Amino acid sequence: MKISIIGTGNVATHIGTALKNAKHNIVDVTGRNADTTNELATLLSAKANFDIANFDSSAEVILLCVKDDAIGAVAALLPRSQRVVAHTSGFRSFNLLAAAGDNLGIFYPLQTMKKGVALDFKKVPMLVEGSNETTATTLHTLAADISESIHSVNELQRQYIHVAAVFANNFTNHLWELAENILNEQNLNLDLLRPLIARSAENVAAHSPSQLRTGPAARGDFFTIDAHLNLLQNEPEMTAVYKVLTESILKNRI
Amino acid sequence: MKISIIGTGNVATHIGTALKNAKHNIVDVTGRNADTTNELATLLSAKANFDIANFDSSAEVILLCVKDDAIGAVAALLPRSQRVVAHTSGFRSFNLLAAAGDNLGIFYPLQTMKKGVALDFKKVPMLVEGSNETTATTLHTLAADISESIHSVNELQRQYIHVAAVFANNFTNHLWELAENILNEQNLNLDLLRPLIARSAENVAAHSPSQLRTGPAARGDFFTIDAHLNLLQNEPEMTAVYKVLTESILKNRI
Asked: Which ipTM value was assigned to this complex?
């Protein structure tokens, strides 16, 4: 298919590359920044475009790979058409695209991705939704060309998946950061814990986390919990995190 | 060296196996449960022993691989000797072993391990401490035979490492469990998030988590934060966890 990509960030780069590798034709890349737009256009053998209204009119699908807050404003600059217009946000509605036509949808890759860091797109779960059957089918087919893991989910489900992803990724990364802070305070390095982090992630690849509970809270070991809180007594923020998670573990084990 | 192992659990099994593979002689395995004791003794080509006082007197090193709360009671059953007596707890003092002599120490493998699940022990950080130079050297040498990652740390450092490990492992596993609960409520499966979990763990293997911050709190995206809290409004426990971690991320990004 002929695809127009709006945006030049991490998602635009990885989705564009995956679509190009699947023999789709990226007709143009629209961006504001000359460097990143030219760079991505070159990578995708596409035209670089700097004015949304000037996008290649041969495009059958327009993908908005832009920040959540920009979706509505970008869509308002597109002419109304029967093209499929989709955005890549995990949380926002396709209704934000209403100015651009009636064939609207979601094309959300559920993975963290960075330009320049290789990614096996076949394993990236694609969450797809369409404002009507044809649009949903078009996006589903497109997704199936780049990934083996396609999921048709409605908006509410996608929002719950998004909040679950915040727990599973953003919050866990923050806990690793707090662990690093604790170690750095003692002139120690996160390398000490990297084997443990790698192993716990490997374990959850094959098991339910509910089967992998370990540690003082899971054991109801209040001696160690109190001793840990004592060590953290000058860190009110870490203490708050420690307490709320310990409380939650204690409740879940009942 | 001739080593006597007390305990038959996950740590006893993996440490015993690693020591045997490094050509040390496990003279006996002491346990209460006949099945697990005989099983581990067979695995380690050692005698099975069921009475602590009857341990093999040729042992040069005694390793207590028992629960934290049992360390003191087990040590009290050992005769005072000049042997090296060490325990494998990440949190407790070697002073708990005082009844058994003066050459006391810590031999703590900083990894989560389960019987029957293979482990590359060479990569397991070993935290070692001795009540005197000779003991520390003996335990350091022993650790170097089974691991490439040996760390001489004092008790306070080891305790901070232990609390950091709770953040990096126990708490992250709990967040994965909460994510699974959210998905299950929507009749969805954790498989949706497993690629994301794997990728975020891979990322932290090579970067500081402070360089990997993503998500609504890291962006200061209060629209999404409020919408997430709205989705969780019937889950007071998850709401508490969401709020405290979001708060902590917001503070750290300043």
From this structure: 0.94
